């Protein structure tokens, strides 16, 4: 199989159910999901096995699920088996957020992306994830989509925020507080 097909030379690409221009909002949505997946892989490569084996395992699962998100978004209509992303996947993200959040100190102020290289990398994942979410919202305003993808991506950005904080914590680096912030967060119940 050749890597190049020349079928996109005219500015169109194939999606499930047809062809669209490469700058179509649908392509922007799943393309940003693909970009996010690359950043997740980069973050995983920065993790030491012993200290971050749980995160590596979870993030590798997320990489597979990001492919599922992209697949669902690239479909002009659901296939005979329906969509891949579902509410159970979203619930699992929430469980992971709750579990990892127990490792962090209470937030009182906004924090800046930073601390360790790994934390910074996970903050990049968070911000790219937010951009992907914006692209998915734009697509949803124009076409029917799997609504679970939008919810999944929203929750995923919260997980990246939490993992960035946990990585600083595990490596003994404090979060970088935004010094111009008032104390805006309440302590956990």
From TrEMBL:
The keyword ATP-binding applies. InterPro entries: CblAdoTrfase-like (IPR016030), CblAdoTrfase-like_sf (IPR036451), PduO-typ (IPR029499). It catalyses: 2 cob(II)alamin + reduced [electron-transfer flavoprotein] + 2 ATP = 2 adenosylcob(III)alamin + 2 triphosphate + oxidized [electron-transfer flavoprotein] + 3 H(+); 2 cob(II)yrinate a,c diamide + reduced [electron-transfer flavoprotein] + 2 ATP = 2 adenosylcob(III)yrinate a,c-diamide + 2 triphosphate + oxidized [electron-transfer flavoprotein] + 3 H(+). GO terms for molecular function: corrinoid adenosyltransferase activity. Residues 3-166 form the Cobalamin adenosyltransferase-like domain. Its EC number is 2.5.1.17. The keyword Transferase applies. Pathway: Cofactor biosynthesis; adenosylcobalamin biosynthesis; adenosylcobalamin from cob(II)yrinate a,c-diamide: step 2/7. SUPFAM superfamilies: Cobalamin adenosyltransferase-like (SSF89028). Belongs to the Cob(I)alamin adenosyltransferase family. This is Corrinoid adenosyltransferase. It comes from Marinicrinis lubricantis. The lineage of its organism: Bacteria, Bacillati, Bacillota, Bacilli, Bacillales.
